[in-house]
Amino acid sequence: MLKPLLAGALAALLLGTTPPPARVTLGDEVFLQSAWRDLAGKCVGVITNQTGVTSRLVNIVDAIKANPNICLKAIYSPEHGLRGDRPAGAYVASYTDARTGLPVYSLYGDQRHPNAAMLAGVDVLLFDIQDVGARPYTYVSTMAYAMQAAKQFGKEIWVLDRPNPIAGTMVEGPVLDPAFKSFIGLYPIPMRHGMTVGELARLFNNQFGIGASLRVIKMQGWKRSMYWPDTGLQWVQTSPNIPEWSTAEVYPCTGLTDSIGLNGGIGTTKPFKYVGAQNVDAYGLASVLNARNIPGVYFRPAYWSPFFGALSGQQIAGVELDVFDPKVFPSVRTAVEIATAVRAVSPGALKIGVKAAATDWGTDTFATALQAGRSAQQIEAQWEPALRRFLAVRQKYLLYR
């Protein structure tokens, strides 16, 4: 048995292996195959990170450098850095990349908008970063700022489109109130928007008045009903706390709970898949949540001790979310259900920071309604009119069926 295994390993080493073919052709692959010819001698700068890869996991910068007909001037990195190794909120420095010899300009350091010096010699900005489908994730804010800079300095910006890993069919949560605009929410879109980065770019550019010279390089083969496994693509960790695609489906849920005093599993091997606090009745919470029959998810009583963070080494009690059917799992609704269930079972565990919650949720209506004792259904109902208006606007900017 050993000889065939060794022979197979040797063949793989000699011939090289690649991931299996995907069912979706990414925007960067369309660019590399044909759209690059439309550059007509213009030089590009690439906004990317470790997720900017083709379906065969070839880095976009390497792929561009392999084409001698494309003039590449600079790289720009978002939060977490070019390699995705910086913690959430950590300063990202600019530097010269030893591997390529190119300048890497940070868009999460001293500058969040590319300035004139950073854009010198660049005619077209390319954006190639994988998003997770939730408003607070900062990559789409980086894209919006780059679009604003492109408008200001007379550059073009091309968005190389990528799938929304949690599909494009479910839209939920509060539409951001402009009074609570921040880098984790620049424009009035819902918490879970159901759009690709290319569709968001069109929305930002036309509906919210950026007015840049924008081109979206569409994917081929992606459908709105596709969750990440349906694409056949390999997942690349988008940030330190989104190690797997399945983390993205719970991020718009438990990622919203830290501003009310709950730990969402940060500092563990299962970030965002836990939620609880030090003085929560884990079995009581699981019982209440499971009785609510939330589609697609089961709640298991759980206990954990974060390896790092403010609660490092402390025992936390709560629930683990087992999402068994992501296609019906309402992530934002579940966050509201969790908050109201903790209020009922272990009210002392809630420590509601109204200002912090307003920034995270994009509205102060969640925290105030939670404090007032409103039910999950009542809390969600107040967001319905704005959500219906958004859905009507959104329809104009969708690129895929």
Could you explain the architecture of this structure?
There is one protein chain. The chain is an alpha/beta fold and 401 residues long. The protein is 31% helix and 15% strand. The protein has a seven-stranded mixed beta sheet, with helices on both faces. Strands 10-12-11 form a three-stranded antiparallel beta sheet. It folds into two domains: 18-238, Uncharacterised protein PF07075, DUF1343 (Rossmann fold, 3-Layer(aba) Sandwich), CATH 3.40.50; 245-383, Aspartate Aminotransferase, domain 1 (Alpha-Beta Complex). Helix 7 (245-254) packs across helix 9 and helix 8 packs across helix 9. Helix 4 links the parallel strand 5 (124-128) and strand 6. The protein is built from 13 helices and twelve strands. The N and C termini lie far apart (49 Å).
Task: Give me a quick take on this structure.
The protein is α/β, with parallel strands linked by helices and 401 residues long. It has helices spanning 2-15, 27-33, 60-65, 139-153, 197-207, 228-231, 245-254, 282-291, 331-345, 354-361, 365-371, 376-381, 384-394; strands at residues 43-48, 71-77, 95-96, 103-106, 124-128, 156-160, 172-175, 190-192, 213-217, 274-277, 297-304, 316-323.
Q: Flag low-confidence runs.
A: 1-14
What is the radius of gyration computed over CA atoms, rounded to a whole number of angstroms?
22 Å
Number of helices: 13
Quick check: average pLDDT?
94
Q: What overall geometry do the principal axes of the alpha carbons give?
A: globular
- CATH H level, superfamily name of the largest domain: Uncharacterised protein PF07075, DUF1343
Number of domains: 2
Strand percent estimate: 15-25%
